[in-house]
Amino acid sequence: MRFGFDIDDTLINLREHAFHIYNKKLNQNISLEIFNELKTVEIHEAFSLTSEQGGQMWNSLLEEIYFTNCPAFEGAIEFINELQKEGHEIFYITSRPKNYCPRTRQWVVEQGFPVVDANFYCGMQDDEKIHIIKELKLDYYFDDKPAVLNTLTDIPTKIYVKDQSYNQHVNIPRVKSWVDFKLQ
């Protein structure tokens, strides 16, 4: 079988990691309860930042957000390593900016995820992921963003959404925990 995975907020807890960085940089102590209630992918509104201010902050912190100690979701590394041991092909499809692709691939490897270089796709826009997913003829694909998931409704790939506060309206089978997840 061929399995495709988004990385940020599907396999690793990037938004919460960034949230902690924002708290530190802005010298604030906004609670995780506020974070867990956000209905948007963007986290700036929890800090009373405008979209423009939030975008500027995010972009100014990308190195720290992407390449420091962002944790994988519990069980994600083990789940993917088990799939690989069983002989399945693993593909990563991330819309991180192109200039971060080589370091992202290396960082993912360092975290313990199995990566075959030819199966690592990076640098496209969210709405371009569908072309790669179709071309790869994936059996399964996992993502968190409604904007991506909504483009995948007319393909034979079995789609799963990684459960997040901002995607509760998406009616697709969910991964609430990688530890407890079982393919349907």
Automatic annotation (TrEMBL):
Q: Which Pfam families match?
A: NT5C
Query: Which residues of this protein are catalytic?
Result: D6, D8
Q: What is its EC number?
A: 3.1.3.-
Instruction: Identify the domain of life.
Output: Bacteria
Q: Does the keyword Hydrolase apply?
A: yes
What biological-process terms (Gene Ontology) are attached?
deoxyribonucleotide catabolic process
Gene Ontology MF annotations: 5'-nucleotidase activity
Q: Does the keyword Hydrolase apply?
A: yes
Q: Under which main EC class is this enzyme filed? A: hydrolase
What keywords appear on the UniProt entry?
Answer: Hydrolase
Kindly give the PANTHER family that the UniProt entry links to this protein: NUCLEOTIDASE YQFW-RELATED
- Give the family this protein belongs to, as stated in its UniProt record: Belongs to the 5'(3')-deoxyribonucleotidase family.
Q: Would you tell me the protein name for this molecule?
A: Nucleotidase
- Native source organism of the sequence: Lysinibacillus antri
